[in-house]
């Protein structure tokens, strides 16, 4: 049992054969990152934080038993030394993105929780790259999507901003990139907003509601050849 408020840092690989319950923070290390393996059942409690510093969660937590992630818990992708991938087969409560590297999806995320408002994504550093996938919330109460100052969210394909959250918070110097094909730009108060083309000439159309860009609004052809920006409502930009 790892109690709430405790912080455990691994200094070697460990194997667990019985039951591991964590309400505190479990850190497998970053520059040298270690692995928890074995056939134990694992419960990440409602105050628990499991940090992931390897290239993916399975490298840090190679568990063959049952893994239960309680509402209110956090899985934090926190490496400062390597880019990371986020697997879609876990039903996450809260995902936190920290560290100065890029964290990329490999499938559509399932953000759900039995606790109202506990399905959250917090990007505090680095970049969360959705690629061609989605990270929508389906929980009762919606939760929060937050991009801190200096952090970035990248949206690809024909997707728009992740939906279903009750609160969207963008720092003044945060970055949201619509870097796909034809995309709908959600009506929000952004920090910095980047509109890019992935291929050919693409169109970025805003929702039919006023939106604000508190920082800079930048359009570019990116990897494409042209970009058309079609505001469907008034917008304000500094």
Q: Report low-confidence residues grouped into runs of 5 or more.
A: none
The rounded Rg comes to: 19 Å
Structural class given helices, strands, pairing? mainly beta
Number of helices: 1
Give the strand content. 35-45%
- What oligomeric arrangement do these chains adopt? single chain
Q: Please state the overall shape, judged from the principal axes of the Cα atoms.
A: elongated
Overall mean pLDDT: 93
Strand order of the largest sheet: 1-4-7-10-13-16-18-20
* End-to-end Cα distance: 51 Å
Number of DSSP-assigned strands: 29
Name its key features.
mainly beta; 238 residues; 8-stranded parallel sheet; 29 strands
Structure, explained:
- This protein is mostly beta strands.
- It is 2% helix and 44% strand.
- It contains one helix and 29 strands.
- An eight-stranded parallel β-sheet has the order 1-4-7-10-13-16-18-20, with no helix packed on it. Strands 11-14-17-19-21-24-27 form a seven-stranded parallel β-sheet, with no helix packed on it. A three-stranded parallel β-sheet has the order 2-5-8.
- The radius of gyration is 19 Å and the shape is elongated.
